[in-house]
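User: I've been trying to design a sequence by hand for this structure and keep getting stuck. Would you show me what you'd pick, starting by listing the structure so we're on the same page?

Assistant: Good idea, let's start from the same input. This is the structure you sent:
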């Protein structure tokens, strides 16, 4: 906790040094003013009693009223000043930290989004971790202020009796220790329930998303999903209820010590008053201090609980910032973008998966070649594409471009080489133009190039709404069909004009004829580019120079369509099976 506190304060202070100092000073003053008020009230009551008895002039009473008024005024000014500083700190933190956070998100290794432990960390961080930092920061200083205020009240009790001061300090320590245990119990529960929370969010999304809700309604499966959600909710609720009851019992034990101490103080004060050994001012001060110290101890316990809970979120943020990042090569070697791409005995497995997805894969792609990767689901086609794009590094072997390891190429240079359209492409709810030109934003206003890309993707019908918003974010957003979204994804890949075009089944929902025509048009226009096509439909492979057939992570065949069809093997079996399917469908 100490290290976390230092990191949080240091980080926020670097973003807003002046406002941090002002906020700290304000919180200290805000803690001291209530104690000053109690002491001033004590003197004021004594002055009133002296006036009643005729033993003191009015001037001391007026001075007491004036000082008390000044303290109360300063208290309010400090309160509003602290609120202002909170907003300034929030603004400074959002401005200074958001860029750093976004930079981290885009730099995290792609594998972290597929590995369970890392996904849990990203889930806990959420979309606005600045809130956790700011909450921790402000709660910590609120806790410091509580300590200062209680310390002032304890001094009042020490002046009455050292025994009461020591007992109060001990009871307060017991309360804080038990409260720490209570919060630790709840924090462990929240950590244990991370997986269940992610599943709950997924089920909620199923019941709130247009596409899935339509599918569930058509299949009369809403009750099924709802029951799964209710069952999971019951598990989470029961675990939290039990743990909450246990933690509250621990917390109540700590408060009992404070109640006993306050009871002793009240009994003592009553006894001393009946024997005339306490002045009225001290009695009023003690009663006020008892009420304030009880209120303050409750605030401190709550702040302590909050800072521990915020500390959990801050530690997740620390873990997030420590996630491995993609290694950026700033001054690597430059190569001819039209060079030979080669896999040298590449093997790969996904995080926490004991099985190899690729096993000793070797092949080469010559400049301007059109390559088809074919095979059943899970054969390793998409994994090869991810490796080529640099999203993963091979466990064994190398991937080279003109004999240079692609992971030694400058990052910005490497990204410009590829243009890609994937099956799970993004649907940006911006304008049609933005959906096409986001792959090369510097040419976004070039209408002729945007229109050309749309024509090649057979999306010319969308040119008339080129600058209209699509999706549901904007009030006048236009809804597109699945096929129209796919065409925009293909136009985006073409618009980038990367020297290596990768098409990983982005047209999966199109009918075979439309898909074949679209790919034929693309491959014709991309004669001056190298192309890699991933598809289940082998009719497309006929249009490629070389076909690589994968089975269970291994290359089992390589060659042209005619060569592979002439030899017995998996490709021949797949092609005849698909041909039979089309004949049956046509019949």
């Amino acid at each position: 906790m100490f290290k976390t506190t230092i990191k949080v304060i240091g980080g926020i202070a670097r973003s807003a040094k002046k406002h941090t100092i002002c906020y700290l000073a304000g919180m200290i003053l805000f803690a001291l003013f209530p104690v000053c008020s109690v002491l001033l009230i004590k003197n004021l009551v004594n002055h009133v009693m002296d006036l009643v008895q005729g033993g003191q002039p009015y001037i001391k009473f007026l001075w007491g009223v004036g000082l008390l008024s000044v303290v109360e005024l300063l208290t309010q000014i400090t309160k509003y000043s602290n609120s202002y500083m909170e907003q300034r700190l929030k603004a400074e933190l959002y401005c200074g930290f958001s860029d750093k956070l976004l930079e981290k998100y885009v730099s995290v290794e792609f594998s972290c989004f597929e590995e369970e432990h890392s996904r849990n960390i990203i889930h806990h961080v959420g979309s606005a971790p600045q809130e956790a930092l700011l909450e921790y920061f402000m709660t910590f200083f609120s806790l410091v202020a509580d300590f200062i205020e209680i310390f002032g009240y304890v001094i009042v009790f020490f002046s009455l009796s050292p025994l009461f001061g020591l007992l109060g300090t001990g009871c307060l320590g017991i309360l804080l220790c038990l409260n720490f245990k209570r919060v630790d119990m709840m924090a462990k529960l929240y950590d244990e329930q991370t997986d269940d929370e992610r599943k709950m969010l997924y089920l909620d999304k199923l019941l709130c998303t247009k596409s899935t809700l339509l599918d569930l309604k058509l299949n009369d499966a809403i009750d099924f999903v709802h029951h799964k959600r209710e069952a999971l909710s019951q598990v989470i609720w029961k675990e939290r209820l039990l743990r909450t009851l246990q933690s509250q019992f621990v917390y109540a034990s700590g408060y009992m010590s404070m109640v006993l101490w306050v009871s002793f103080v009240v009994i003592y004060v009553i006894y001393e008053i009946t024997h005339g050994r306490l002045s009225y001012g001290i009695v009023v001060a003690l009663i006020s201090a008892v009420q304030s110290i009880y209120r303050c101890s409750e605030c401190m316990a709550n702040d302590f609980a909050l800072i521990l809970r915020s500390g959990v979120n801050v530690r997740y943020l620390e873990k997030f910032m420590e996630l491995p990042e993609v290694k950026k090569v700033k001054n690597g070697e430059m190569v001819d973008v039209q060079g030979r791409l080669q896999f040298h005995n590449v093997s790969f497995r996904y995080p926490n998966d004991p099985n190899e997805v690729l096993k000793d894969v070797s092949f080469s792609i010559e400049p301007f070649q059109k390559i088809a990767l074919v095979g059943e689901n899970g054969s390793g086609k998409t994994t090869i594409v991810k490796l080529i794009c640099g999203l993963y590094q091979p466990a064994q072997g190398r991937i080279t471009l003109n004999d240079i390891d692609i992971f030694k190429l400058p990052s910005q240079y490497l990204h410009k080489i590829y243009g890609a359209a994937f099956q799970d492409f993004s649907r940006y709810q911006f304008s049609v133009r933005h959906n096409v030109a986001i792959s090369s934003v510097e040419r976004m206003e070039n209408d002729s190039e945007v229109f050309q890309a749309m024509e090649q993707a057979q999306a010319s019908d969308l040119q008339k709404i080129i600058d209209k918003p699509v999706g549901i974010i904007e009030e006048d957003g236009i809804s597109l069909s699945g096929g129209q979204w796919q065409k925009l994804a293909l136009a985006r890949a073409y618009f980038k004009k990367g020297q290596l075009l990768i098409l990983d089944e982005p047209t999966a929902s199109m009918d075979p004829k439309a898909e074949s025509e679209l790919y034929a048009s693309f491959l014709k226009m991309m004669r001056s580019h190298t192309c890699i096509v991933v598809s289940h439909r082998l009719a497309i492979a006929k249009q490629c120079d070389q076909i690589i057939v994968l089975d269970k992570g291994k290359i089992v065949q390589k060659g042209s369509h005619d060569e592979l069809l002439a030899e017995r093997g998996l490709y021949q079996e797949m092609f005849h099976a698909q041909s039979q399917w089309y004949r049956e469908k046509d019949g």
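That's my pick for every position. To get oriented when you compare it with your attempt: Residues 222-274 form the longest helix (53 residues). The radius of gyration is 35 Å.
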